[in-house]
Amino acid sequence: MSIKTGVLSVAAMLMLAACGKAPETSETDAPAGAETKAEVKIFTAEEFFATTTVFGSSINHDGTAVLVSNDATGVFNAYRYPLDGSEPEQLTKSDKDTVYGISWFPEDNRFIYTADQGGNELNHLYVRELDGSVKDLTPGDNLKAGFLGWNDNGDFYAFSNERDPKAFDVYRYSSKDYQRELVFQNDDLLSVGDVSRDGRWLSLTKAVSGADSDLYLIDLSAEEASPIHITPHEGNIEYFSYGFTPDSSKLIFGTDEHSEFSQAWAYDLESGESELFYETNWDVSFVYFSKDGKYTVIGVNDDAQTKLTILDSKTKESVQLPELPPGDLAGVNFSNDSIKMVFYINADNSPSNLYTHTLGSDKIVKLTDTLNPAMTPEDLVMSEVVRFSSFDGLEIPGLLYKPLQASADNKVPALVWVHGGPGGQSRKGYRAAIQHLVNNGYAIFAVNNRGSSGYGKTFYHLDDKQHGEGDLQDIVYGKKHLQTLDWVDGTRIGIIGGSYGGYMTMAGMAFTDEFEVGINIFGVTNWVRTLNSIPPWWEAFKKALYDEMGDPATDAERHRRISPLFHAENIKKPVLVVQGANDPRVLQVESDEMVAAIEANNVPVEYVLFEDEGHGFRKKANRITASNAYVRFLDRYLKNSANQL
């Protein structure tokens, strides 16, 4: 990692982390707690990231343990968590590349995991054998692979673009000797979906445009299989696969054909008829089943919060669980016999914890304790869903985090937080970086501007080929809403975001005079370059991307007009840029050039470059360094804005 212009060296940062101390501050870097009330405890980034991130819920063949990914060592590794609550076992020992556990084998304790190389997104699939040795199932350079699932015979399916960097082909692997067979050669560059449990059917989607897609099936048992189009339609309608029913009789798919929101429908593979499976007034995010089909799990994106329902598949009645801890239910999975289940509980003020429950009992067993014991949920902040009117009267939602120390008598500076995408969504749930900022006295308003997902298809497409225009004005009006709050210092409001949110940050700094500071986290600054250098494995999505952003062959003039790099002379206020050197989506050169252009204005700019990260920071030490950089930068240039220039 390299850092320039006033940010700590990595050696110093790691030393401070090891000592459990916050970085010391100079006279211009006032202590983070200087304006806080005495009763508010202030924590360092090291303390916030002393929480543990866990995910994964594959239960092994005999129902005794769950496969989990855990970053307790600072790098994600695979762990075995016994369902009796005894101590977990670390199964992989990576100290460099992140390891994400995927699934146990159906009949023994081998498991499959995925890892890339330094954040380059070229994931391979690996199997960890019973003796602890590891085999790369998808060897080779410059290829990307993924896991699709198991069939009833215990063999599994995977996809890989090794034949053609633009095309993901599908292979069936023997679970005994890992010999594989090509079962679908993807010459039409379709997006691979799911494989049925009987191994006969493969679902695929084709992006016609950013608002229109088609769903196909391949009969893998046919000698010369060709895609069967099962969603003929007119107009802009989206279709996508949730997966097959356990008995391989139906494909459950999502569509916005009948509503502003995605509904779940069931396609009968024998008759070819479809019927409504589940609907609500929000998007149905996912549908899946226990292995034996006894239970159905449905997730709904309810106003930036996942609401999960577990149904008895026969009666369609909700499964009754014991009283659960506060928070949202997530990550539900079942043992093969559906007697045991595991799940997570997550909240804004509490990272995900893993639990297990035996169906029919009145007890749950907590398997993890992920919050740093030095803090409690009461030390942290819950967000509030807030809506405001934008420049044209459109109602815009967002998540507002109010620092505990904020009041009309103690006004605090604020940041408008912009999500990635385009088309992402800021959602409820624990985020250490946000809680660190809020704890240090910065209000956060995570605005879901027009073009965000989760609020209906009309809202989602309002920014198509208008990026840096209406969506940026939504962010500006989010700032104006903050200025109406009596506990916010309306003269000290900045902007922060990652990826597309990083672009919006730089657009806010280059095209408006609204924000006092900007924090650009691996954001696009040159759309001309970015849209001409997308990774080859995005080929199936390129048409949809161009439909939303514009084709560089025909829209280069507009791309140049909305690219902050070409208007950097307008940037007159301090900026922090954070970038991963291995990022395949937003190349390092984007940030290098942006920093140089701001420096040419004689404007304060700081740059944090991680040599071992890609698009997103996975290593805990790097996330600590970044979070500390945010607070130090803001303390210098926003909290003490009179000293900034």
Outline type = globular
Biggest sheet, open or closed, and with what strands and sense?
Answer: 9 strands, mixed
Overall strand count = 36
Number of helices: 11
Report the helical percentage: 10-25%
Residue windows where pLDDT falls under 50 for at least 5 positions: 1-38
By CATH reckoning, the class of the domain at 2-50 and 375-526 and 563-640 would read Alpha Beta
Radius of gyration: 25 Å
Strand content: 25-35%
Span of the ends, CA to CA: 27 Å
Strand order of the largest sheet: 1-36-35-34-33-31-32-30-29
CATH topology of the domain at 2-50 and 375-526 and 563-640: Rossmann fold
In CATH terms, the superfamily of the domain at 2-50 and 375-526 and 563-640 is Alpha/Beta hydrolase fold, catalytic domain
Counting helices, strands and paired strands, the structural category is: alpha+beta
Q: Which architecture name of the domain at 2-50 and 375-526 and 563-640 does CATH use?
A: 3-Layer(aba) Sandwich
Quaternary structure classification: single chain
Please, what is the average pLDDT?
91
Looking at this protein, list some descriptive labels:
single chain, 645 residues, alpha+beta, Rossmann fold, 9-stranded mixed sheet, 4-stranded antiparallel sheet, 11 helices, 17% helix, globular, disordered N terminus
Give a description of the structure.
- This protein starts with a strand and ends in a 6-residue tail after the last helix.
- Helices cover 17% and strands 33% of the residues.
- Strand 3 and strand 4 form a beta hairpin.
- The protein has 645 residues and is α+β, with helices and mostly antiparallel strands.
- It has a domain at 2-50 and 375-526 and 563-640: Alpha/Beta hydrolase fold, catalytic domain (Rossmann fold), CATH 3.40.50.
- 49% of the residues are buried.
- Residues 1-38 have low confidence and may be disordered.
